[in-house]
Amino acid sequence: MSAREARRLASAAQGAAAGERQHITVLLPVRLAEDPPWAAGPLPFTVGRQVADADGRRGLFTPAAARALYEHRWHLWTSHTADPLRLDGMELLRTPTARAARQALAVLHFTVEGGTPVLPLLRALSHRRQAGQTDPLGGAMAPSALLAGVADTTAPAGPFALSRPYTVTFLAPGPGLGPLALRDEESGELPPVADEFLRSLASRSVPDDLPAAPESVPEMRAEVRRISADWSALVLRQGAAFLGHRPDTGAGDFYDWAEYNARTVYLDALLLGTAQRNHIDELTDDLSAVFEGPGLARRVAALEQRIALFRSTYWRQHLSAHGPANGLLLAFQDKHRLAERFEQILAEAADYSRLVQTQESQQIAGALGVLTVLGLPLGTALSILQVLGDSRPWHLVLALTASLGATAAALTTRYGRLVVSSLRGGTRRR
What we know:
Blueprint: H1 3-15, E1 21-31, E2 39-40, E3 46-47, E4 50-51, H2 54-58, H3 63-70, E5 73-82, E6 85-94, E7 103-112, H4 119-125, H5 143-146, E8 166-172, H6 192-203, H7 217-222, E9 225-228, E10 231-235, E11 239-244, H8 255-262, H9 265-288, H10 296-313, H11 323-335, H12 338-388, H13 393-411, H14 414-424
Parallel strand pairs: 8-11
Antiparallel strand pairs: 1-7, 1-8, 2-5, 3-4, 5-6, 6-7, 9-10, 10-11
Helix pairs in contact: 9-10, 9-11, 9-12, 10-12, 12-13, 12-14
């Protein structure tokens, strides 16, 4: 069998796969003119006696991360159905930046009807040319319709804005998925195609859409995070996915907790990463324009203040003592190179700050030089008159005229021109 035929068979198998419980969470940027008339806090999903409200989640995160995630967040329960999707609830989280004070993230929680393959929906949402069906986030399920009167869903014009919403997919398989997702009952080994299916869910594609080079397969598999023997996660640039590796037996199963964590704590880690990416994109763009226009010192000082505020409010690489949430955030940061880009921002800001300090030192030295050039001839002339005891007015006028002439002559010398150039903050050509 050729590699092309193998991809086609794999694409067909993945496109027909349906889990026992399937959820798609959609993240997209919006703008809020005012606080929405919704209940405060995140959607309080429950499992057993555990409630994932703001108080229940704060204890799992550092104080700074909890403030960024829960202080300006609202939710609304709903039950809106448009086959095969059911909207369970919506959230809004303010993530303001210096440019966009009204910026926020909308979070739409969907359940996919059992028996419905989830991958074709994801491909259609990603506008794959080969998907062959319309965008499921259209008509009654369009964000503009769901958030009408509450948030503006017009695509932002900011730097590096996503062309499509970010998706987080959860799939708990039934026994019918077999080798596509489940561990072998005897050996406990996970089939290689399970990681391929997980990548398809996260990338919202099938192997025919984005054929992987054989040389890159080991690196791709290394990106998969084994949360436990029962399920795995993968974070990519355009989406993330959680896939179970044993059959879902229904209510009371372990997947109750897996679903709960995927839609709450693990989602929050990705929300924080999204907010970090937006700030870093904006800071990078603003640093590239720092030399455009006057007032370099003022602009550099404003950027340094923004960097410090971002660092104290949003920039976290360790959310909690719980490994999976930290791992998901680090995976998101790695995919978007956030840590490397933030280090570059800090290095550039430090360089610009040193440049401003050098210019200010040059201007101070130039001012002292001007005082010296102006004051030395005048002081010398007045000292001579005082020593001679000469107080006649015309001698004083003559001394002042001579000192001004000496000053003007001094300013035409190389040293004088250098002093004036330093005072203006310019660079002298050699």
